[in-house]
Each structure stands twice: as C-alpha cells, then as structure tokens.
Amino acid sequence: MRFLREERAQSLVAMAVFMALVGVGFLAFALDVGALFRAKRLAQAAADAAAVAAAKEVESGNTTSNEQAIANAVAKLNGFDTADSSNPATVSLTTPSSGTFAGSIYVRATVSKSVPTLFLGALPGSATSIPVSATAIAGGGTTPVCVCVEGSAQAIFMVNGSTLNASNCGVVDDSPASNAVTIEGSSTLNASSLGTVSTTWNNSGNINNGGSISSSTNIVQGITSSCKPTMPTAPSYSNCLSDPGGGSTNFVAGPSSPGGTVCYNGLTIGANGTTPTLNPGIYVIASGTLHFKSGNNTISNLGGQGVFFYLTGSAALTIDNGANVNLVSGGGTESGGGTATSLGAYDGILVYQASGNTAQMNVAGGSSLYMNGALYAPSGQMIFSNGTGSDIQGGIVCNQLIMTGGSVLNTNANASSSTIVSPRLVQ
After folding, report:
1. Among 108, 133, 203, 416, which lies 20 to 30 A Cα-Cα from 377?
2. How far apart are CA 375 and CA 372, in angstroms?
C-alpha cells in the first residue's frame, strides 16, 4: 500500500510538471502569435509607405536606384531598416506583370524581417519572417480636380451641416498646414479623392463633432503637384459703363454682338423684381460688385448662355438670399439643349476673379445656382452659407473655401478643369 501511495504521489508530481510545461508552451505560443500579428501590421505600414514613396519617384521620372533608396529610407522610418547589422529587413520593388494592377504605372513593395519568437523558432521548418506587400499607382490614371484650394493656412472649413459633393472628381488642398481641412458640426465631404500638400494634417484632430469624409473618398497626403490650372490672359477693355441695374425696369446687359466685350463699373442683376437678360459675351467688372438678387418670381436672369465675367481691381461676386441664377460658360451645354456661344480661351470658365484680387465671393442662404462653368478666385475666399443649393459644373479654384449653415455644393469637372496624378495605394 505504501508503495502504491508513493507511486501515486510521484505520478501527480510528474503530471503537475507536465501541465506546467504545457502551460508555459501555450503561453509562449500565444506570445509568438501576438508578436507575429504585430510584426505583420508594422510591416504592412512600412510596405504601404515604401510603395507610395517609390511611386512618387516613378512619377517624377527618377531612376530605379532612386526608387529603391527612397523605399529603403521610408521603410526604415517605419522600423524596417535594411542596414541593421543584427536583424536587417528586406525591401524589394517590382512591377506587377499580372492581375488588376499590372503594368509600368504600378509599383509593388514587399517588406519582410525576421521576428524573434519563444516557441515557434524552436520548431523545425517554422517560419518567423512574414513578407508583406503593397501596390501603388505612379501615374497614368489622372483624376480631374473640381475643387482646388490654394491657401497656406486653414484652406477648407466646413461647419453646421454643410455638404460638399464632388463624386466624380477630386478635392485638392495646397495648404501645408496641419489644419488644412476642417470639417465639423455634421458637415460632410464626398469626393473621389482628397489630396493635401500637408503631411501633418490628420482626421482625428480636424474631422470632429459629427463631421465626416465619406468612406469612398481616397485620401492622399503629401502631394507635390499644385492643382491650380493655367489662368487665361485678362481680356482687353476700355470705357467702362455705369451699372445699368438697381432700378425697377428690365434691361439687356452685355456686348452688342455675341462674343464681344463690355466693361461695367458694377453690375446688379434682378433688383426690385426685375429679370434682366444677359447677352452672350465677355463682361469685365472693373471695381464694383457683380451682384445677383432674387429677381422676378425668384428668376434672377434670363439669357446668360455663353458668358464670361472677369472681376478686376477690387470687384467681387455676391449672390443674395433667394437668388436663382442660371449661367452657362462659353462653349457649354445650354440648359435647354444646344451649345452656347464660344468665347475662345474663356470657354469653360464663368467667373475669373483676377489673381491678386482678394475680395470675397459670397453665395448667401436660400439661393439656387446652376452654373455650367468654373469659378476662379485664386486669391480670394469663396463662402457658401445658410441653405445655399449650388450646382457648379466645372469646379472652383479659390484661396479659401468656407461652407456653413447647411449649404450644399455639388460640383463636377469639365474640360477646363485641371488634373492631378497623385501616387496612391491601390492594393
């Protein structure tokens, strides 16, 4: 009996030791698996960054050695150093030859590094290195830009339930500031892409209080290309006329012949229940305001098919609460069908506020716009406020874009819109 008791005790001790070893083994296994998952996440971040950095070199036309050097440097910043003497990482670049993203405009970066393990490393044939890949597009797939904001500080500011819809084109912010894009108070930005020059801007600090960027918007930071399109040469003009509007009588404004040029010191449209007619042609506003009021039965203007407004000096654009504006740029499709009168170099552009003119463009609450053509104010603010509903087919260029009070801006690109190729991840 004593012998059996001793044997039973020895068996219990052996079992306890065995269970302890098994427990240690499971713990080591769990730690190894956790380490491998963490290493894979870090490697993915390094591969993503390396692919985009190499794609930028391809876009710039630099050599293969430059691509590799830049990819290595970016991977190192993410903890994967190819020159580490104790545990060097590997960063390889290839051009995909098959699949959805194949061809010379794509770069695939593969990053790997040995992962120290407690348990798996002791097993024969166990892999402790996990290669991770990412693919970026370098060029060839241009995105038309329909919102180009060129300010150096807070360039896009959306609050109080405003909405910017640029569903088939991109929004580009040339500001290098960390608050370049601010979206707050249930405001929403919907676009094919959002490109920022800033590399320090981030969602968490600038998209808050219910603000959002749609999940389908591709965000690309650190772009190097300016979105500003080539501006047209200023039209020649002389003998500016006084403002024919402001009274209570309908009138016809514009050049006497289609495609001609006329200059006004200011131009008021739709005052006191009138509905003026705008002839096709080039309108120069020399110093006053291009001012659209509510007009008769909320129709601010007739005509306006094939027009271009050039705002020089301190001239500004103001669209009042309740205005209903319908304008088509030169060569554009008229609202009732047909093609508007061509204005040559100004085709596709409705309003061009001269560079250096810092006046605000104000579109007030309750107004309704259909503008087939671009709005350019490279040195000024554009402000959409308080229930504005605006359709701008051709996009906008400004120094700062402010949207507030439930305003809605729907914009698309047209032939005059600039394009930008931003290297970006695709896989």
Report:
1. 203
2. 10
